[in-house]
Design goal:
The protein has 791 residues and is of the alpha+beta class. The protein contains 18 helices and 33 strands. β2 (250-251) and β3 (259-260) form a beta hairpin.
Amino acid sequence: MLFTSTVYSNVVVYNSITNDKKDEKFDLVRPFTFLEYLNYSKSLTRDIVQFTDYQKYLEKWNILTEVSYVDSATQIKNQFVVFLKTITLNYTTNEEKRFLSNIDFNSSSDLEIAAPFYTNKIKEILLYFAEKRDTYKLDLLLVENKGTIDSIQSYLKTFVIETIFGDDNPTFNNLTVPLSTISTQIQIEVENGYDNFNDYFDLDPSKTPAFYNAMDTRKKYFTANTNINDSTVFLDYNQAIINLINSEQVVLNDLQNLVVNINTPDLELLQDYDFIDYTSRTIDNVKLILNAELIKKFTGTDFYYLSTNNNNEVLSGGLFTATSPYSNLLNINNPATLTIPSTATVFERDVGLFFKPTKRGIIQLQTPFKYYIDPCTLKPNHVYIFPDPDSYGNVSGVSKVDHETPLTFKMQGEDIQKNISSNNALGNTFVTDNDFTFDSYHSNEQRTKAKSFATTLYNKGVVNQYFSDVYGNTFIGFKQQNSNYLNNLADKINVNVSQVGLSSTSNILYLSSIENLLTGTLSGTQTLSSNIILPSSNPSIYNTRNSVGAFYIYKIGTDILSPLSSEFGDIFSKYTNQITDLKNNLISIESYNDTFVFTTTAHTIIDKINYKDNNFYKSSSVPLILDNKRNNITSNPFLINNMLYLITYNLDTLTVLSAYNTRIFNFNMYSYNINTNATTRLYNRYNTNEQFSYTVDTKLDVYNATLVHNKKLDIFNIALNIKDTNKNFFLHNIQAEIKSGAYIILKDTVYHPNNVNVTVNFYDGSFTYDIITNTIVTTPTTSNTNGTITF
């Protein structure tokens, strides 16, 4: 054979039936020729063993093929003959072709004569393929790195070294420093330059270049970056042609100064450049077709239209579908193109290495919203076009221009806020593990300042409320006052510690964990407090939440912390009959924009409060003032969109006590608009109040009402806390909905306690037997107010 070798590499031939890969097979009918084998084996090295490998491939192919070859040796010989003829045809000169044309490839003697020639040619072919394969790998690496910082640095380094040691620089030829040293010591650093120009996208074509800060070349060719979003191209093609004709100002031959308004789509009035093909003046050849494709290609969202007639009747639908929305995310309203870039370049060191553009991105804040059409705001005979309303509200985006829209959008921020079921997290953003969140950055100075304004409130009680209003002022509410926490304690206390080997004048830190000296004294310590009265028991969460508190306000504008009663003095004076209650019996305070809700032991007050020049002032709006005490209770307010809802549950004053508790309670519902500060009293479908009574053998009193709302079902849920004279707990649950401005009671359920208490009334003698037969195991108590004896 031509080559002999004892080495055979396990060569994988791709796209061949000889491999077990799931690739397409190209040698099903015939085996690869040798040159094809070199391409598909992809394992060429500079060791000339490939011909032996090719023999192995042919033998394996002959075994696996469905084409039957009885004599594999003959098959291999035929492939070699084909290969030699290919060399003769493609890799020889004319003189060599003339010499080889006389060879009989079936004659062994002729092949022996030509063997040395073909041996050299095969070596040349193999070496050529090996060299090109190595070069290809190198070229591929260069292509992948082309344009990167690494490739630029490598090129500059090579250029500098070649310049120093090149033949055209004899001055450096006698350098004593070797090339290897210089190559390793030279460092080339390339700093990135960035284009931080912002006004590239969503450009309004009606604005001037100066509006978008265009300078130099970008200013000169500004219109190359803008495109008109013309709705007539999609809705009325003939009108689009008419608009194109009139945009070129048609004049009469005899009256050159008179511009004629054309109202027919006459193609003869168009210029040659208004057509895609200048030689064809047909309606399908007008360049408006390309304008429509351009608009769809460079707009970041689908567009819709809404048209009206003289009677304000509406027709709407899809205008066009964006073909590449994600490539043009910022083009919300206008199909702008980045044709002429800005010439300004900013380097990393100019903007700070941390805040460089590679660490910046685009944040799109999304809040749920709904939209609707207000017929009163629509213009007659008008066409509106607007981006996909399910994706974008009435936003200007980066265009800096407000756009006309027929839709009214309403934010639904409560959809991403936690409700009352989250307790103290009420109002916080509701996020999941799949959401991106961004936490605000607070400096040490900010934390110090925030901490310092509250240090004077030490020992004021337990913080029950802590929130900020829309102006940034902070409100703090305390409960459980006078809790015997030490106040104004010095950082260091002189203590006689001679007993532990220290000097009697040593200063040591007082342990903060020691809050009260209950009994006895510590040897050598100062007397800090005396006659400390400890509470007999810890108050319940319910009692704490509904007890009177002390409230303070920190005004961010003046950096002053003050009691709420002093800052709201002008506001409280507005409520003549409730001012004492507000100052002395305030339970809670809530803020909804500029609307405040005050809850006291006797009243609930909702009103607008003005804030100007770092001071709070009473407004001229009419407040909503409701009683809030036993048997005349007011629920908590519940905000839905811009409406605060609350209910009242009042004992009918005409009801008298009887042998059975048939007293009537009136159910009322109110809504308060925090934008208009208007109060609306809601009634049932019969325009009356709902009334409830309880037919149980005891007198019941209503103490508390809680109002919540299920958004999914759009149902209000009211829970009434009721107790009898034995303080047994009853629960009255009412579910209601609002339809057409009236509330509808959907469910009304009363839950009774299961106990062994006995309550007897003395309105008649029917219960005398109960008094005699039931053994009294407790000390009876009387109530003059209720006219009862409780056993």
